[in-house]
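Contributing: when you submit paired examples, paste them exactly as shown. First protein:
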Amino acid sequence: MTPLSTALGILITVVVYPGLLFLVVLGLLSQWYRRKLVARIQNRVGPKYVGPFGILQPFADVYKLLFVKEVVTGVYTPIRLLMFLTALGIAATSSATALLPMAPYYLRAPLDVFVFIYLTLYASIAVAVLGLGSTSPYPSFGGARYTALMLVFEPAIAMSLIALVRVLAPDSLSIAEALSNPRIPLDNPLRGLVAVATVVIATVAYTTSLLAKAMLKPFDIPEAETEVAGGYLAELSGPALGLSILLHEVELTLYVLVLANLVIPVPPLEPGALPTAIALVKYFAVLTVLVVVAYSMGRVRVDQALRTLSKYSLTLSVIALVASFLT
């Protein structure tokens, strides 16, 4: 196998599967599923006009924004820079999929979980800059709120993810190894009990942080329409708004996919149609639980959100990280 063919395989992995194209399609399908599920919870209909059962509605919305609508924003808003940073966030998130063992070509190395954390951090930075980079007060308020939450949920997500990977791949701290060859220490009952407890605690911390990172209830305060008129999205339109929607869906899809296959490590993630189908079943199962939990609660204030994240995300993630080194 030549270096050129390997590089080409990695490029296809990042751009097509399980990279950008796969994440966009799965993310927009997941948006339709979330909207239908929330509509059912709230006794509404949800999307129904474009495609069977409205399944193509998110695709039509994003297409219209990207290719039909035009950008209308404040005269002093650096919209080109904001769009570039949004596209960079999407590209960085897609690049992180090179560490997922779903395609024949993927990257695996000791400590690659830190590379994954580094790449996915760009998405959060892009969302914060989208709000803070506007001259309008409403996006600035939304960006400031998101930045305040980000200072808590990003360390919590990082530590809980490291704890999960440490339990499943203790020798390498490789997320690719944890997904493709998980090793749960069940030979020793005490170590196995600590490992299971660590996974539970890290999952709670990761899930709570993910609700804030994805701005799902009760942490949807950065875009609260009744308070800050849409928050960081208030001044976006056309392609800028379309890219921000894609960034949100791609980021959420990747994090839920990783969570589902770390929390339910059997069967392991590997290339092939059947393993991919099983991984998607786990993905939609976790997504369903996430959405039901999120929309069973109302929005909280910024100070309440920070206290909740500090208590149930940051503290638990520290406990999980310490416990993971005891397994």
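Second protein:
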Amino acid sequence: MAFTEEQLVRYSRHIILPEVGGKGQKKILNAKVLIVGAGGLGSPIALYLAAAGIGTIGIVDADAVDLSNLHRQIIHHSSDIGRPKVASAQAKIGLLNPDVRVVPYLENLTATNAIEIFNQFDVVVDGTDNFPAKFLINDAASFSGKPLVHGGIFRFEGQLFTILPHISACYRCVFPEPPPPGLIPTCQEAGVLGGLAGLIGTLQGTEALKLILGIGQPLTNRILRYDSLTTQFREIAIQPNPNCPLCGNHPTIQTLEVQGEVVCTIPPTVTNQSDE
């Protein structure tokens, strides 16, 4: 494909990077990325991937925009209250970059539809805010063989890491099961600092671009945690768990299913880890 004059200007700061260049930008324009969740994390992920020129962006979200979303979900505006989040996000992406095709899924991701949806994309980015969704996304990415960029936020802390199915540690290698009921408050009870969502989501979008371009070192086998109160990053080394129920030597999970109650998404402890 040849760039138009407008594209040469729009993506000029990418193209002049030796690690990207014209070939890399063409990879971006041909790429298909699925974002699950159009909320606090999904908003910056979608905006930066659209600005970068990702050719097709899928967005899965069954919710409508609520006034309480707006302090962190920056893709939505006050005039969007009551509007489906996927429609709101699609409209903003269209205004930002007409090169991008948006595929909206106004539905919940389920054990029934996840594999079919994932198979249509190159990379999956997790922008959800609860454990049942995160375990489902992890499992579906493993079964479909799709790279996954995980992210989570809770009050003043955030985390992310990248998963290459059957190559690096998956979500279940670190957190084999959802936390017991009552251990972690719901998202409404816990709260979250708005700007934190922007930081973690932007890092997730950067990881997705690295995967598409095949550059740098993906955030695999290590969790990056950020504490906004101390302005400190902490990297935690992890490794594939041979006893993982999903990707271990003797997996016991053979089909998709939804697990756990809806609570916020950073567990208080991490197993299978060492500090770096």
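If you have annotations for the second protein, write them as plain sentences, like these:
Residues 31-275 form a domain with the Rossmann fold fold (CATH 3.40.50.720).
The chain has a mean pLDDT of 92.
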